[in-house]
Amino acid sequence: MSDLDDFKATYFDECSELLTALEEEFAAIEAGERDSDRLNAVFRAIHSIKGGAGAFGFGALVGFAHAYETLLDYVRDGRVELTDEVVSLCIRANDIVADHVNAAQTGEALDADYGAEEKARFDALARGESGEDDEGGEPLEDFDIDFTPVMVNLGHAEGEAAVEDVFDVPPMAPAEGSWEIRFTPHRALYARANDPLLLFRELAALGTMRVKARMGQVPPLSDFEPFAVYCSWEISLSEPSLTEAQIREVFEFVDGDCDIAITQAGAVPAADLAAMEDDLLLDTGESDLASLLALTEDEMALPEPEAAIASLLDFAPEPKPVAASKQDRFEEAPALSFADLAATIAPASVAAPKPVAVAPKAMAPANSDGEESHRSNGVQSIRVDLDKVDRVVNMVGELVITQSMLTQQMDETLRARYTELVRGLEVLAQTTRGLQDSVMAIRAQPVKSVFSRMPRLVRELATKTSKRIKLETIGENTEIDKTVIEQLSDPLTHMIRNSADHGIESPDKRLAAGKSETGTIRLSAEQAGGNILIIVEDDGAGINRERVLKLARDKGIVAPDFTPSDEQIDQLIFAPGFSTAEAVSDISGRGVGMDVVLSNIKKIGGSVHVRSWTGKGCRMTLRLPLTLAVLDVMLVKVGESPYVVPLSSIVETMQCSRASFERVPSGGRVLQVRGEYVQVIDLGKRFGLAKPASSADQFVVLCESEGSQKVALVVDDIIGQQQVVIKSLEENFERVEGIAGGTILGDGNVALIVDVQGLRTTHLHQNAA
Amino acid sequence: MEALSLRDDLGDRAAAAGQNSLQLIAFSIGEQTYGVEITTVREIRAWNGATPLPNTREYVRGVINLRGTIVPIFDLRARFGDGQTSPTKNHVVVVMSVGDKWVGILVDAVSDILTVNRDDIHNVPEGNSIDTELLNGIVTHESRMVGLIDLQAVVSGAKADA
Questions:
Q1: Last residue of one domain, picked from the residues A88, A105, A137
Q2: Whether A641 and B51 lie within 8 Å, measured CB to CB
């Protein structure tokens, strides 16, 4: 069933997107934006999740989602007021839906009564407000996805007689609460992966229903177009208090993708009736349907089309003889669901009428996307395998290199001689650059996808630690490379966990300190040059430096006689195995958290900086590269080898002859820049490369690593700026100290990327040793 | 680059080779001949310089660009402790796959493709640890001794001691 698995995978992808959307909507609702658009969006999301879950048979999820949906429905039409209590219940419900989805995905079983409490509260709310209202009295607990199959009959043969039989109420005798619906889906309806069957199921929940399919337009097989729509339905629905609005509501999602005519029973316009008759007049001998069915004859060894239909009907639980009066057939004919019918027709390889053929599409990706874009003119998107995008990215990277290589080959004589060629190359350069930007934009995603997971985390942490915590997110539309985003989730989780557990104090402590009871964690993202800054800030107690230092000394992370600066103490929280929690809790204290942050962030070429204000709070800044694939660099020479320094970390460059170096007791040099003393690293010495030039010809590249700590790199020559594609050294080799990776230059040679941050930390180690 | 094509004469030799035989690419370092199993060899190319890697052992000659991928080059002579090779255009890099990584080995010359019998492979005599560490076995081919290189051992431990 790999097809089904594919559908499932898509469904779960979709669910995670919908759940993300839910978080967003509720964040807005919680903030006071209680307009109906928000609620409708929530409703649609839950509805889509429920729909898919129903298709795959995730009963628990469907049950819960249904109860939730009912509450939302009541809120929407004003029967239940959207109080803070209801909002927080809904937020809790979102978490439960997420857990259900997760359980369905992993195949784990949740406790049978998981979410039962919330469900009961939904019911209580729904009942409490709607009182004796009958239509609201649908027992939620008893919700069962296995609706009674709807009755279907193939409008076949004996034309006029059949028409008469369609109605069990005499025509022209309007009956209260009795409705006739003519439902003609358009192609778009199926394209958006809606399934009429699901609509019918919902209708069936409204009252006593009969459905009649009109297949008069089905062409001969030779003209049959697989994606065309040939089938429409007539539905008669009766229930004393049924209103047109209720019926319209069922069709809300397909509005615009189908023709719906809703009339009170008996009030069918004569013209319509005539049209119906036309449709239904299927001559047995020449009928298109008959010719379709004739195809099945060989397999079924049936002499007549009519017998074939009879055999179709035989699949129903209680087959009735075809010879029985048509009246019987229509009024009491065995209920035959579309699913059964589909199962019957499909194997016979007859091109089944459209609705049957696309039924499984209910799970297809277009479903919610289609609905969304239809409703809100949202972004049209396609799902593309990331591997495919990466292949394009890599190829474009190679193209950029080739292009710059070509440009380098053009010397002055060539330029003078082949002006056309030069012009062509310039256009090529522009186009390549544009192509590269576009490709990178494909990979870029808003950080929202990660940020939206955090509100739930904060809620849970607040509950577990009995603190009151508010999460603010800023700049969630900042876009960043997909790979970076994927690597961001874990570090952010740890950082927020850290803030909630260690940073924010308990409410009484906060009050005692003169702060508001509720602590705030602010999560923000912004672009700063070629970097993205992700900042996690809290207004808690800040880092307890005394304790951190004491613990670090106890654990031997800091030598007893070494007195680190405040900033250095703050950075200690990133040391592996370091934890200030007195007891290991299920939130934190095992000492792996911040260490993970540092290593994950370093892995994607970023850096972490922490700054703490005692009693006021703590701020952690992640500096991340905008993209992992392309880097603006300065090309330098160390010895005879080319090296590149990321442009984003360079502050300025200067000639050594103009720089003022000072000696320090350790024998090293420091550089004085505008009253600041900066550590000097001679790359030639550090990398063990012979240095032919005298120091006067050398250059200083002043770099800023994280935490506004500067470092001056001494290089032998500065060649220029360019864009490079980062290549991994580790792919075929291993990590090299002080080197962040490699890249291929225009001449085909490999240049190494200097890891500025790494150089500085190894330098510190050496100093400490 | 002058990548040599091995495909043509490979075909008939492979056909001639029985089940119990092993095909080797033989290359020389000074007077000595060594071999690696032919299936691990991806490409043979002339030495065209490499970008040195800092903080690595002396036998890591650096990295080269192999059609967009960065491949490290190991100097086999230096790996055996005989000092660094002074490579010329006539020196050869044999690119091989070790596990899921591609590495290049700098040798003096590639001499031949040998077909040897697996039963003829002898153990490396105990004695010098470098020999036993870096060779999988020894085989005699036309009265020449051919050391079978243990690629995994050659490329491991390349990082300089901190």
A1: A137
A2: yes
Span A444-462, average pLDDT: 85
- The total number of residues shown for chain A amounts to 769
Q: Are residues A399 and A301 in the same domain?
A: no
Nearest chain B CA: its distance from A567 CA (Å): 26
Q: Which of B64, B101, B158 is closest, CB to CB, to A750?
A: B64
Q: What is the pLDDT of residue A693?
A: 56
Measured CA to CA, the distance from residue A66 to residue A15 in angstroms comes to 15
CB-based contact (8 Å) between B49 and chain A?
Answer: yes
Q: Are residues A176 and A33 in the same domain?
A: no
Please give, rounded to a whole number of angstroms, the shortest distance from the CA of A687 to a CA of chain B: 5
Q: Is the predicted pLDDT of residue B71 greater than 90, yes or no?
A: yes
Distance of residue A769 Cα from the nearest chain B Cα, in angstroms: 12
- Quote the CA–CA distance of A179 and A350 in Å, as a whole number: 33
Q: Domain check: are A464 and A556 in the same one?
A: yes
Residues A489 and A581 in one domain: yes
Distance (Å, rounded) from C-alpha A27 to C-alpha A622? 24
**What domains, with CATH codes, occur in chain B?**
7-155 (2.40.50.180)
User: What does the alpha-carbon distance between residue A658 and residue B78 come to, in Å, rounded to a whole number?
Assistant: 42
Domain of A35 in residue numbering reads as 2-137
> Per the CB < 8 Å rule, is B52 touching A641?
yes
Residue A732 and residue B62: Cβ atoms within 8 Å?
Answer: no
Domain of residue A68, CATH code: 1.20.120.160
CB within 8 Å: B63 and A733: yes
| pLDDT tops 90 at residue A705 | no
The pLDDT of residue A707 is 53
Q: What is the pLDDT of residue A175?
A: 54
Look at residue A665 and tell me if it is in a domain. yes
pLDDT for position A150? 45
CB contact under 8 A, A728 and B70: yes
**Is position A554 within any domain?**
yes
Q: Does residue A675 fall inside a structural domain?
A: yes
CA A146, distance to chain mean position in Å, is: 30
**What is the predicted ipTM?**
0.80
Q: How many CB atoms lie within 10 A of CB A407?
A: 14
Nearest to A736 among B53, B69, B71 (CB): B53
The confidence score (pLDDT) of residue A339 equals 45
Shortest Cα–Cα distance, A403 to chain B (Å): 14
Amino acid at position B120, single letter: D
Which CATH number fits the domain that encloses residue A749? 2.30.30.40
User: Domains in chain A: how many in total?
Assistant: 5
Q: Sign of the CA dihedral A562, A564, A569, A574?
A: negative
State whether A392 and A490 are in the same domain.
Answer: no
| Displacement of CA A351 from its chain's centroid (Å) | 36
Span A249-254, mean pLDDT?
76
Nearest-CB residue to B68 (from A688, A739, A744): A744
Find the distance separating the first CA and the last CA of chain B, reported in whole Å: 36
Tell whether A280 and A309 lie within a shared domain.
yes
Rounded Cα distance between A730 and B69, Å, is 11
Q: Determine the distance in angstroms separating the CA of A501 from the nearest CA of chain B, rounded to an integer.
A: 37
Residue A377 covered by a domain: no
Q: What are phi and psi of B2, to 5 degrees?
A: -85, 65
Contacts of B53 in chain A (CB under 8 A): 729, 733, 736, 739, 752
Phi, psi for A434 (deg, rounded to 5): -65, -40
Interchain contact, A736 vs B68, CB within 8 Å: no
Distance from CA of B60 to the nearest CA of A (A): 10
* Contact between A734 and B55 using a beta-carbon 8 Å cutoff: no
Pairwise CB contact (< 8 Å): B54 & A687: yes
Cβ pairs bridging A and B (under 8 Å): 76
CATH number at residue A547: 3.30.565.10
Kindly report the average pLDDT of chain A as a whole number. 72
Smallest Cβ–Cβ distance between B52 and the set A394, A689, A729 belongs to A689
